[in-house]
Amino acid sequence: MSDPSSEGEAEESETEETETETESEGTEDSEAEEAEADLGEYDGERNSAGERHGRGKAQLPNGDTYDGEYEHSLRNGQGTYRFKNGARYIGQYLQNKKHGHGVFFYPDGSKYEGSWVNDQKHGYGEYTYANGDTYAGEWFNNDRHGQGTYVYKDTGSKYVGGWVNGNQEGEAELIHLNHRYRGKFLNGNPVGQGKYVFDIGCEQQGEYIQSAEDKGEEEEEEEPSLPAVLKWKATEITELTLWTPSVKKTPPSEASPAAAEAAAAAGEAVEETEGAVEGEETMPANAVTDETADGRDDEPSHEVSSEVFRPEKHAEEEDEGSRGEEENKEAQEDQGTANLEDKEDESQEAE
């Protein structure tokens, strides 16, 4: 498995950031001119001593402007400072120094929003660089220092971890689109043991070491050597351990009697439903024959079929059969009565 070496993008980006921040520091320092006596034009409130005190606007000799709060001729409180080169600061001041929360817009399009202490970026802040990269984390004396997250706009990669005096240092994770590296960093480079975690489901453990050839050249040459070339040495490749929740299934023998009765009732309901469906589907043939016959007068046989299956015809035949049975029954009873009378007459004659 090849070494995904994309850490180089950090070095190029860091160089651009350093240049941008150096220019920005010069821009910020130009505010100090107003710290001297009352310079430039001022329009605003003053105290009894004639000092700039309260709300006011100032036009400085160098072309910068300030609109905000003053206290004893010093910028103090909330205000907006505009530089003649296009930069501006909107935030809090304390004795002419940026102090508290503020937003600084730089001429190159970059921006810092966060905490300031004594004119320095200090505390938590978010910096958007001119090339689109972003940093969100801790600052100390204008440097990225502590824990922070740096996002590279061009590649979408992200560094999450420690910083020392503006450099990537300490435990961190460098996240790319389809893999990530976890380990230690020093001066912006990974060092020592670490591991690559790939989205395909495996891990590659190893360490970053300095090339033996580079070491030999450094010993022979007395001149300042070039930055060390680090190489990744893989030691082990393992699969990721995926956790799957287990579902406990109840054996059929352990099913409760109530569940068994419910299952039996459901089976009977299904059978009744199937029987009802079958009964609905089995229709007498005469219904179809009658409808067909009513719609087709050109066939002579439809009249015969209609008569055979007419309900009135069946009713008449049943009535005639019933009357015949009753007549036979009455005749038998009359015959029995007559025979009984004859027997009684014969008995009387014999006496």
UniProtKB/TrEMBL annotation:
Residues 43-53, 293-332 have a biased composition (Basic and acidic residues). It comes from the Eukaryota. The keyword Protein biosynthesis does not apply. Residues 250-268 have a biased composition (Low complexity). The keyword Plastid does not apply. InterPro entries: MORN. Residues 1-73, 246-351 are annotated as: Disordered. GO terms for cellular component: motile cilium; nucleus. Coiled coil: none annotated. It is found in: Cytoplasm, Cytoskeleton, Flagellum axoneme. Keywords: Cell projection, Cilium, Cytoplasm, Cytoskeleton, Flagellum, Meiosis, Repeat. Residues 1-42, 269-281, 342-351 have a biased composition (Acidic residues). Its main location: cytoplasm. Functions as part of axonemal radial spoke complexes that play an important part in the motility of sperm and cilia. This is Radial spoke head 1 homolog. The gene is RSPH1.
